[in-house]
Amino acid sequence: MMKRSDGKQKVTKGMPSAVLLSIAIHAALFFLAGMLVVFTVVKKKEIEFEPPKAVERPKMKLKKPKVKVRKSSKPKPTTRIVTKVNRASMPDIQLPEMSGMGGDGLGDVMGGFDMMPDLSEVSAYGSVQSIGNDFVGTFYDSKRDRNGRNLPDGMNKDGIIWKQKLYKFFSRGWDTSVFAKYYRAPQKLYATSLVVPITLSGLVPLAFGDEDAVGARWMVHYKGQLVCPVTHTNGIAFRFWGSGDGYIAVRVDGKMVLANSWCYPDRHADYYYRAPVFGSLWEPDTSDSYKYFLGNTYAVLSDRITLEPGESRDMEILLADDGGKSGFFLAVEEEGVEYEENRQGAPILPAFKTIGFSHDLLDAIYKDLPEGEMICLTNGPVFCDYDTGSKTITTPVEKPGTSHIPPLRSNGVRLCGPTSHTPKSASRIWTLLDGRTMEAEFINIFGGKVVLKNAKGRTCKISKAELSAGDVEYAELASPPDFDINFLKNFRHVDFSGGFYDKWARPPEGQGHYGFQIKQTGTGDYTHELQVEMFVVGRQWRRSKYRLLDRQATSFVPSEQEQRIFEFRSGRKVVERLVEYYNSTFGEKHYGYLVTVRDKRGKMVVMKSSHKWLPGILENLNELSAGNFFDETGMRTYPDLANKNPKY
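Predicted structure:
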């Protein structure tokens, strides 16, 4: 008989398999159903907001602020950063490059005007503007690093380190990377010639916009193209004559063709003065070298150079000086051409140039050039491959006729209003607002009424309110109030002694600005614009020529000035400096001024002058620009030369 428990046990053993199978089937069905489910996304309706109703608010009536502004007030100083980008060839690029900035920044402010460097100034080292046919000059100061900080070896004894650097530059094929660690002036100059009369070395950096450099142990590197003159259809063969105090060198097509340095008359071959700067890198091949003085030292002759028509060659020039006085000359001796001789018996050679000398450049050279130099600026070949059409400017000196100008008062003021001796205005037709007219002569304005005199000699007074606007303006212009003019000179003395300057002193100078103050002293409300011009005159030291130091023009309305006073200060910085060399003194000092005031018609209202003869040349002064030299007639001329070079 079987036990019941055995049957139950069999049934119990089969249950897990069925359950597992059922679970697996249901799981598969649920998975399949889940794959087939379609989800429906119900998009909620966006809530729409209704804007609230506009609220009407009471409007306030704005009043125009009444602020009285004084035109002569001085604004706070501002700094403008002016960037000048010059195209550079790839060999000129040095990275990283930093340019030092001297003083208090690029600009200074005086009387509300930004004072920036006068970029129109032309120096013997070049101009700030390129004409395309020039040599680009870069200034280096070996005593400072690229950030303008003083270098410890900058003032070593006898400058041996500096001279070794120069020799390294030459021996490495004029490699400017030798100067990479030195300060480089941010301003380049573009030279069309190289005639630099003897001047103080301390002034040279100023030409390149470097106000902080000391004039010692600096270098200027020029690069350009030497081309056959277009006038020489058969080519040209020539030699350079060059002299330099301290050093000058010329390289053409990668070959040094001239090298010279300052030396004592009997020591031109002394190694100490010529090496290690040049060493044996170049020697002259003619006995005419070291025979004649040119500038402050003996001249040497370069290798012979030949150029065919249309030919151009790369050319470089290096100038360097270690302090004291400096000067550089590069002249041309053309084969087959005879030249006049100076007192030394040396040929008077034409200066090397790529364009004819402008009047401005001649001024810059002549003002420091003594008589007797063996160089001529008005003839010789122009190394340019196209016709520039430029010629050396010659200004005839002739005494012009002068128009009638009323005489000056004892205080230098000339009045040109009704109180002057100028004739009264002629009769004219006056129109009243009611249409009536009358012919009468204007007398003056008194008590707000226009005083007229008819043909019978009877006078009448008519209120301004009864006259037409044109007649009122005529009367007001014909009757300006009295004005007083005060000339302003704001200068300070600057001494550059101390530090590096103890040995290579930059001469002291006066720096400042000119201006004027015009004060209405007469009664009446003058509402018309007045035009003002200021001429500031300097004179060559112990010579006969004058120089226009500054010229400015402005305008103002007397009724708009606080207390009827208008003050103007020029934005042009003027430097007064006297320098001694060649046993002579060079420079210009302030001499006088002329200030004119005209109305809107161009009629003179008042003028003031420091000298009685200046108003007589006003017509010619109007043709001059600041910096021009002129004679006692007001005609532009060249500065007087210094005494003869004592070496001649």
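Summary: The helical segments are 4-36, 160-171, 204-207, 271-274, 359-366, 469-478, 618-621.
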